[in-house]
Design a protein that fits this description.
CATH superfamily of the largest domain: NAD(P)-binding Rossmann-like Domain
Strand content: 15-25%
Strand order of the largest sheet: 3-2-1-4-5-6-10
Number of helices: 11
CATH topology of the largest domain: Rossmann fold
Largest sheet: 7 strands, parallel
Distance between the termini: 62 Å
CATH architecture of the largest domain: 3-Layer(aba) Sandwich
Radius of gyration: 20 Å
CATH class of the largest domain: Alpha Beta
Length: 342
């Protein structure tokens, strides 16, 4: 295929490029050229701006476009309109955050989605704004390319070059060993997908002309937080000791769910989020989405993190607030928990 990637130098986009090259596809990237570019020389690079600077796309044709960098409906709609007569298929990378209600497990693609308010500014100031805009982006792409667009409602994407440190935090922390603060409840559901599995599947779906919306996360079978950490420990940190702290204690101590303890939803205190990591992914699996072993993802992520200290900043070109607890804060919490539990 001739593949156009909108983005292509950061996390998911660069893996889409690598997966396409591995398939033997011809690859073109379109971006502003502001981030470090370590892609192979045989990738064609077009530079411009999705907000009013799409001229570099004129007069060109591709079999499919993968839009891994679309967040605002106006901008995504402009890209879709410019490419509507130039591509056969459009893959829009959306998000599981589009759903209006994730209080229960098993949310499927038919569930209602969020809508940004009528006066919403173009800024991702909250999860609701992010999800609402992504939902509107999906609708815009489908309206412009009816029956030729696939919106991929991705869950937590993990693996090498992940700029968020969410999954990487647990991998590197367990590899360091010692007493590791783990959040209860142990039976909270966890979902994630290796970026390489997602990238390869999206290209395959595009080649097959799959359209509509699909939840794209994993694994195939339910995974609890306890099993998640136990499997990671076996893969990268067999000397680590998990010390489980009660949800009420962690919240009382000011620990921020998802950010300070990644993937932790504090479902007892936040029942509206209890099913966020328990989506129904059966349709994507039926459409060919597969998952490598969690241990493989963990080991590869650790190897990348150890080879490139502070890689999040280097890869993205901007400084992001890293997810996870620093060592001093974790020790403080462990000591306080032991006193309370004694």
């Amino acid at each position: 295929m001739r593949v156009l990637v909108l983005g292509g130098t950061i996390f998911l986009g660069r893996h889409v490029v690598e997966a396409a090259l591995a398939r033997g596809d011809e690859v073109t990237t379109f971006n502003r050229g502001r981030h470090p570019d370590t892609l192979p020389a045989d990738v064609e690079r077009l530079h411009g701006d999705r907000d009013g600077g799409l001229d570099a796309l004129a007069g060109r044709d591709w079999d499919t476009v993968v839009d891994s960098s679309g967040y605002f409906p106006r901008i995504v709609c402009a890209s879709a309109e410019r490419l509507a007569d130039r591509v056969g298929h459009y893959v829009f990378v959306s998000s599981a955050s589009v759903y209006a209600d994730t209080s229960r497990p098993g949310v499927d693609e038919s569930a209602p989605v969020l809508e940004p308010g009528p006066d919403a500014a173009e800024e991702l100031s909250s999860p609701e704004a992010y999800g609402g805009f992504k939902a509107r982006c999906e609708a815009a792409v489908e309206e412009v390319l009816p029956g030729r667009a696939l919106s991929v409602r991705a869950g937590l994407i993990v693996g090498p070059h992940d700029p968020t440190n969410r999954f990487t935090y647990w991998v590197t922390r367990l590899a360091r060993g010692g007493d590791v603060l783990a959040p209860e409840p142990r039976d909270q559901s966890v979902q994630l997908v290796d970026v390489r599995d997602l990238a390869a599947w999206m290209l395959d779906a595009a080649e097959r002309g799959i359209a509509g919306v699909l939840n794209a996360t994993g694994p195939e079978r339910p995974l609890t937080f306890e099993r998640f950490l136990v499997e990671l420990r076996a893969a990268v940190g067999p000397d680590a000791r998990l010390e489980w702290a009660a949800e009420r204690f962690l919240l009382k101590s000011g620990v921020e769910p998802w950010q300070e303890l990644p993937l932790w939803l504090a479902p007892g205190a936040n029942p509206g989020d209890a099913g966020f990591l328990a989506l129904d992914v059966s349709q994507a699996i039926a459409a060919g989405l597969g998952f490598r072993p969690l241990a493989e993802t963990a080991r590869d992520t650790l190897a990348w993190a150890e080879a490139a200290p502070a890689a999040q900043d280097k890869d993205v070109g901007i400084r992001m607030a890293p997810a996870g607890l620093d060592a001093a804060r974790e020790r403080e919490l462990l000591e306080a928990w032991r006193r309370e539990a004694a």
